[in-house]
Design goal:
alpha+beta, Rossmann fold, 8-stranded mixed beta sheet, about 675 residues, 35 strands
């Protein structure tokens, strides 16, 4: 019943979304000429997603998330079935960003907030929580009377419909007894709190089991970068030290994500003898392995998916491209198999599930379409479409994307996502390389509104997963150490050379575009390889590495984080774009949101001033209300319009220093 109903619904809105290779009408004997098409307007791509970070209430009757309403994101709780007028809508507080949203019970959610705020002579990241009641819409500030920096370390939520949660929070910014976070039991409907465990010197993190008993603490000293695991068998009694590691040496503590009732064993994600990460059962009191619970064939385990009550491992997220979610629970595995069979050409992702696993939020999408969101009731077999992820695009199939591989100049295999513009020629195209942010991240073969927008404007777009990217194992990740600004950047340039050698890219019409770390790579790209690019666009980018990586917002792990960055490059100043302006030949567009709390707006404003002073071609679009992720529709429209205009002017302009570039000059070494 699931298959027949789903196919009927999806075919009604989008035959092309379901059509896989070889499916649909037979191909004509002679391929027709590329049909003309009308490009979608910029406003369609700037449209906010229907919902992000969506999750079901424990009973499955409601979902909560960040909904795009009238051009802005709001925290919303809405019925999955029935009267949508019963929705609760809360605006996101000004100058804050949403870190997470969690259901406590069927009637209440808690929301983690963070902001960059002035503290004495510096800017610090400050975190807090609010509770929101579904029936009344009442907002309750949780632990806002405390005076510490971090007040939103959620340890535990109940599974018995009660209102009290466990939170660790600081009560002072000055080193002393109140600086070290205590553990509080907090009522999310009233804000009343009760201290369970007092702060302990050097312990900044606490962890609880499924019963809400605090079972471990993590100590850390930045002077030595040594971390210590403190543990106790039950929720009472003294803690004892069971493990010490050096984080500077990249050693890791054995931290449980699930405790097995009745003994000292727990589930952890750890490295197996072959170096891959697996789920293992460990005797926490001794640190000895008991057994391997799950190891993905040829892939790494990235995170665990546990039941609502925290007692059962349901599945794991892995680096397996074909099947990233491995469901261990047979009920969830059966749900996934039915939904996959209903739409074999789509990516079918179960985004959330109810307490009894009988109700699901499911997204069907492809790299060419942002997808459709459905509510599935397993008991009845009903599958109800909630919305298109982007109603302005609907079910249209946009430009084709695929994985490609190329060799870096030192022989390392690099993978990337290539998006070819629909309705255009396939050779000698204007070309944009778009390195991802992080740099500890990676681009997947999923819908990307930036890449699709640029492809709709006729550009071929390459998103390279350069060395140091996640998702390819520990060896590939560590290959980035010492190579920020060097081989990591060469991997991006070598992707351009590959595209030119393949005949895809016109070497005279290449632009580099990126955000955050990708913005850094865009600026550094035109400094390191000034003759390769026609233009560059940096969005919320980092121009001065030394200034950025030395500012951790008052974080206690400042030395550790500085050491981690210093492992990435031997000399911050030598690979900072603001120190290499003299080498830049091509026009640069800087775009930065003034409410960005991840990368300071000054990173772009200072780069703009320095470029202007040096007589370089530069434009600066400062967007007053934009944050790091452009969560307002007006800001996204400004972003995309600025990119389109700038690239449209610069990438097609004749320039002497590029006019003599030959295609052979771009072939990979």
């Amino acid at each position: 019943m699931v298959r027949s109903l789903l196919v009927a619904v999806l075919l009604a809105v989008s035959p092309s979304v379901l059509a896989g290779p070889g499916e649909g009408a037979a191909a004509p004997a002679t391929a027709p000429a590329t049909p003309a098409f009308t490009p979608l307007p910029t406003e369609a791509f700037a449209r906010l997603p229907f919902v992000e970070n969506a999750s079901l209430s424990p009973d499955g009757a409601y979902m909560a998330g960040l909904f795009g309403l009238k051009g802005e994101q709001h925290i919303v709780m809405v019925p999955t079935i029935g009267d949508r007028n019963k929705s609760v809508v809360i605006g996101v507080p000004d100058k804050t960003e949403i870190a997470w949203i969690r259901w406590v019970n069927d009637d209440n959610i808690i929301v983690g907030l963070y902001a960059l705020q002035p503290v004495e002579t510096d800017n610090w990241y400050v975190s807090r929580m609010i509770g929101i009641n579904r029936t009344t819409g009442k907002i309750t500030k949780l632990l806002w009377d405390l005076n510490g920096q971090n007040g939103a370390d959620l340890l535990w939520t109940p599974s018995d419909a009660s209102n009290e949660i466990l939170v660790a929070a600081q009560n002072s910014i000055y080193t002393g007894a109140e600086f070290w976070p205590a553990v509080y039991r907090v009522d999310v409907t009233t804000g009343r709190k009760r201290k369970l465990i007092a702060g302990r010197t050097d312990v900044m993190d606490w962890g609880a089991d499924h019963l809400g008993r605090v079972r471990y603490g993590i100590g850390y000293r930045d002077s030595t970068t040594q971390a210590t695991m403190l543990y106790r068998s039950t929720g009472e009694g003294a803690f004892r030290s069971i493990e010490r590691v050096s984080l500077r040496k990249e050693q890791e503590l054995t931290i449980p994500f699930l405790f097995i009732p009745g003994n000292d064993n727990g589930y952890v994600i750890k490295a197996a003898p072959d170096g891959r990460s697996v789920v293992a059962e460990v005797d926490l009191s001794t640190g000895k392995d008991v057994r391997t619970i799950h190891a993905a064939d040829g892939a790494e385990v990235e995170r665990a998916i546990v039941s609502f009550d925290g007692t059962k491992l349901l599945g794991v997220k892995t680096t397996d491209r074909a099947r990233p979610i491995h469901w261990i629970d047979p009920v969830m595995a059966a749900h996934q198999a039915k939904l996959n069979a209903a739409s074999p050409a789509s990516k079918v992702r179960i985004e959330s599930f109810s307490r009894d696993l009988g109700k699901l939020l499911v997204r069907f999408s492809t790299p060419e379409n942002p997808g459709l969101l459905f509510f599935f009731d397993a008991a009845s077999g009903d599958l109800s479409q909630l919305a298109a992820a982007n109603e302005a695009i609907g079910s249209k199939r946009l430009s084709r994307s695929k994985f490609i591989q190329y060799q870096a100049r030192d022989g390392l295999e690099i993978e990337g996502v290539l998006t070819m513009p629909r309705g255009r020629a396939t050779k000698n195209l204007p070309f944009i390389v778009m390195p991802h942010g992080g740099p500890w991240g990676h681009d997947e073969l999923t819908y990307d509104y930036w890449a699709q927008f640029l492809a709709e404007r006729g550009y071929a777009v390459l998103q390279p997963n350069f060395r140091g990217s996640t998702g390819y194992g520990d060896k590939f990740l560590k290959a980035g150490q010492g190579q920020l600004g060097f081989a990591m950047q060469d991997d991006v340039s070598d992707g351009v050379r590959w595209a030119v050698a393949e005949g895809i890219a016109d070497p005279k019409r290449v632009c580099i575009v990126g955000a955050s770390y990708g913005g850094y790579a865009a600026m550094w790209g035109i400094a390191k390889d000034p003759d390769q690019y026609r233009c560059a666009v940096s969005i919320n980018g980092v121009s001065n590495l030394r200034r950025e990586v030395n500012d951790f917002g008052g974080n206690l792990r400042e030395r550790l984080y500085r050491d981690q960055w210093q492992k990435m490059t031997p000399d911050f100043a030598a690979v900072s774009p603001i120190n290499a302006i003299v080498r830049i030949k091509t026009p640069l567009l800087l775009i930065h949101g003034k409410k960005d709390v991840t990368v300071d707006h000054g990173q772009s404003s200072r780069m703009y001033s320095a470029m202007k002073e040096a007589g370089k071609a530069v434009e600066f679009v400062s967007i007053p209300l934009a944050d790091h992720y452009f969560t307002r529709e007006a800001d996204r429209l400004m972003l995309l319009t600025s990119i389109e205009t700038f690239c449209g002017v610069t990438i097609h302009r004749t320039d002497q220093h590029l006019s003599s570039v030959r295609k052979s000059d771009y072939r990979a070494a």
